Amino acid sequence: MKKILVFLVVVVSVFSFSVPLVVKGSNTVLPIAQMWAEEMKKLNPSINITLEGAGSSTGISALFNNTTDIANSSRWLKASEIEQMGKEKKLFMPIVVAYDGIAVVVNKNIKLDNISISTLKDIYTGKITTWNQIDPNLPKNRINVYSRNTASGTYETFSHFVLGSDKMSPSVRMVESTQFEADVVLRDANAIAYMGIGYVDNNVKVLKVEGVMPSKATVLDSTYIMSRPLYMFINATEGFPMNGPVKEYFSFATSKKGQELVEKAGFIAAYGN
After folding, report:
1. Confidence band of 4 (pLDDT split at 50, 70, 90)
2. Do the domain assignments include residue 4?
3. How far is CA 251 from CA 185, 248, 266, in A?
4. What's 149's domain CATH number?
5. What is the SS3 assignment for 204?
6. Among positive and negative, which fits the CA dihedral 181, 182, 188, 189?
7. 54: domain range?
8. Position 110 pLDDT exceeds 80
9. What is the DSSP letter of 191?
10. Residues 223 and 246 in one domain
11. Higher-confidence residue: 180 or 5?
């Protein structure tokens, strides 16, 4: 009986030291968040981090309904979300954790190097449907157009820069993950898509937009038109967290090591440049 009690005390002690932290939101920020979580686990084995990348809107919605501690977002708050904060008397604090450029990518076999915003708009609204409408030297093949779904902050940002008040064509194939976009552009000789530069690899071809290639330099000086900050939102309604797992997480994210991991993930550090 004494051994059983000792065992129970040990089990209770182990579980009492497990500190949960839930982080939801942007698929773009997810690879950075995964690196942060792995490093933090080494520094503090008691922290139990749950990550979910289902889109910026999903993360911010979870912050409203108290099902996440931190919302990662690749966009600023929508007017409707700011209005909701006011109605619910909540305050979400933004922390810029990285910078990003939205890259336009095609299959490596497409003989195209540069694209304008107006041409992109015509492609995504359905006015341009074949490659030879862009350049008569390109094939007459139909362009297979891919986009992130409407829960994505990348979709919101792309729409802002490219579409304005216009709507995407119903023929655009909406997908849930950026990795899926990268995979399909590799396989599909007629695909065009867009994604955060951290997802770009040598398997796809990145186009210049208005003559400018997305890079660390062009994102930071905003000469690349589709540049954006990446955010972490925390619920500061009851005040700024001065301790605990939320404070530990964003402190690590903005630390020298955390920002080195941002660069390692293929994005651009917000601090230390």
Report:
1. very low
2. no
3. 36, 5, 20
4. 3.40.190.10
5. coil
6. positive
7. 21-98+229-269
8. yes
9. E
10. no
11. 180
